[in-house]
Amino acid sequence: MVAILFRKILPVAILIMATMNSIAQTYTISPDDTIQLTGVFEDLQTLSISQINNSADTLNLMWRKISESVPSNWNATVCDNSICYTTLVDSGSMNPVLPFDYGFILLHITPHVSYGTAKIRYSVWDINNPGSIDTLTFILTVKAGNPLFIPPLLSGTNFSLNIQNGVTQFYPGVNTPTFGINGPLLAPTLVLNKWDWVTMNVTNNLTGNGNATTIHWHGLHVPAIYDGGPHQIILQGSTWSPNFQVLNSAGTFWYHPHGANKTDLHVSKGIAGIIIIKDSTEAALTLPRTYGVDDFPFIVQTKCFDVLNQIAIATAFDTIPMVNGTVNPYLDVPAQVVRLRLLNGASDRSFLFGFSNNMNFHLIATDGGLIDSSLTLNRLRLSNGERAEILVDLGGHLNDTIFLMSYGSELSHGIMGADSIGDDLNQVPDYYFNPLNGTDFKLLQLNVSPQTGSPVTTIPSSLTTVVPWDTLNVTVQRTFEFDTLSDGFVNPNLAEGPFGINRKTFVMDSINEKVYLNTTEIWTVINKTMVAHPFHIHDMHFYLLDKSGIPVAAYEKGKKDVVLVMPNDSVRFVTRFEDFANDTVPYMYHCHLLHHEDDGMMGSFVVIDTARVNVLEIGHDAVQVFPNPSEGFINIQYPGDLKNGVNVYLSDLSGRIVHTEPKISSRDHWIINVSDIDCGVYFITIQSEHSSITKKIIIHH
């Protein structure tokens, strides 16, 4: 808050006390002067203007606003020594100002961490002396003040990733506990080459109770046991080392936690990083690719801080925008074509990207990599988890200052970040108290500097060949409905939830869908709620077919793994399940609003190889496994055919088999000794000639 205490009308100089970083600085001005202050938001605390009445007269002061210009998402109010107003009212009168007392107008301006300039002009006069009119103009400019943090780069085939606690000063002198990978906040940018085999050694060194976590390789096509969903838990003090071949084409992906009920907490506190995949197709194009020079990663988020400077989650008060964990960032960029890799890493908010001068930019890649040809845009909406690569030609902008913006005023009703969600009866609590919602705000200041030695100065038109899967080969069509769940006693809130998919919430040991290897499917996603949900599917990318029967926009025609489904709308996409099958360990599909995901708006599917295992013939509930949890022995009742024997094995959350029983060919009930198995969560699989059933079991001693 910036408070301006206007002086009493006297024909002498006044003193301005400006507090920055708790150090008082004094300026002297003359009557009718302009006060102009430029500062970094987090440094600027108060500005007061005052002077004592040294005369023997009692003054009766009136004041009037001459003009005002305040950015739309700043708050400005005014008080005098008699009353406080809720807006910048046009005029007022003060209580009498006695000798050696103060008369003042107190102006409160809250910039809400948004760059801009406020200019307000007042006149003040003594009723008993009409000729004493004085004017004062106040100008406050808030500018970017922190160099953008560029995450360090890691490349190779063997990576050591240490998940750790940290402390970050988002504001000078204010320590906030955070999480990070190989550092206090965020994670290194990983560079992978298509076709390489890579090993990710992920060690969970988080302290504090209950900080088991996971790491999901968002957008990567990997085996289910290495996907990093809620089934691949990394306990505190342990290391998870998935090893897989990079099969994705060149593009921008990311990695982040995906543990049950903790995704929002761990991502919000800082565990997130970019993955860049390179291949020969991308390498043949003339594109900026010098990391941190003309090729930049932008992890765009908004956060909420509580009164103790802790990062808060599941709240509508995400009032602090940041890029790469930097508040009020600026970046020096060369006057040439630059490449911006945009990631919406926010918990809830969608961003509508554009530039302050409304210039065009060129989309070259979406979630799954390069599109077929560059697309000229001046706005690009990304919902949570979506990525895009854009080229920006700054060749004619040397020495200009341009802002990367989010145009929240242009977001459609129902999207988190728009001016409104729901209706009078269905609302997100406190949503309308967030000054960012429905407003345009600056994300990053770009200072255009001289060109580099070997600048890219052209925009390629043709990029690659994108061939969507043929819908004529579709064998299965599935429907997924987003709906609001109710306990039967309270009317559901169609904007706030709780939400489910097909009337169900996520259950760790349940499989919601079974799909089959080397098959092509069409999925229809229907949103019956009043809030837009970004839908994400693990394992495979997809191609959008239509939205409520209408062909999708050009910028959404590439490979996708996230799609925003609007309220009362539907989306159809085609996808194909290739390369990996595992009838025990599932992949996920879910809403990527992180607190919706944590609250259970998620389902699971397994990919089954019909050449290896036949379709399930025995009902899942017919097989009994007890007691669960088990303290040393597991009883199994199996009503199936034992003619050719049954294989029983126990696997951990990574898919590693830790115990195998000899082939069982008699009795429909048997006991397994697991007293020598470490405590934890496991899957027990009963596999016959014609069926395979898997159940979750917890072992503790």
Name a few traits of the molecule.
701 residues; mainly beta; 7-stranded mixed sheet; 6-stranded mixed sheet; 3 helices; 2% helix; globular
**What's the β-strand tally?**
51
- Low-pLDDT windows of residues: 1-51, 613-618
Helix content: under 10%
Estimate what percentage of residues fall within beta strands.
Answer: over 45%
Ends apart, CA distance between termini: 57 Å
- Taking all residues together, what is the mean pLDDT? 85
- Number of continuous helical runs: 3
Largest sheet report:
7 strands, mixed
Q: Which outline best applies?
A: globular
Q: Radius of gyration, Cα only, in angstroms?
A: 30 Å
Structural class: mainly beta
Task: Describe the protein's architecture and organization.
The chain is mostly beta strands and 701 residues long. Helix content is 2%, strand content 46%. It contains three helices and 51 strands. It is globular, with a radius of gyration of 30 Å.
Give the helices and strands, then pairings:
Layout: E1 2-5, E2 14-20, E3 23-29, E4 34-40, E5 44-50, E6 61-69, E7 75-80, E8 91-93, E9 105-110, E10 116-126, E11 129-143, E12 146-147, E13 153-155, E14 158-171, E15 174-181, E16 189-193, E17 197-204, E18 216-218, E19 239-240, E20 243-245, E21 251-256, H1 263-268, E22 273-278, H2 280-283, E23 295-305, E24 311-312, E25 320-323, E26 329-334, E27 337-344, E28 351-355, E29 361-366, E30 369-377, E31 380-382, E32 387-393, E33 401-407, E34 440-449, E35 474-484, E36 499-501, E37 513-516, E38 519-527, E39 533-537, E40 542-547, E41 562-565, E42 570-577, E43 582-591, H3 594-598, E44 602-608, E45 624-626, E46 633-637, E47 647-651, E48 657-660, E49 669-673, E50 680-687, E51 692-699
Parallel strand pairs: 4-11, 12-26, 13-16, 14-17, 16-22, 23-27, 26-34, 35-38, 37-44
Antiparallel strand pairs: 1-9, 2-3, 2-5, 6-8, 6-10, 7-9, 10-11, 14-15, 17-19, 17-20, 18-21, 21-22, 23-24, 23-25, 27-32, 28-31, 28-33, 29-30, 29-32, 33-34, 35-36, 38-42, 39-41, 39-43, 40-42, 43-44, 45-46, 46-49, 47-48, 47-50, 50-51
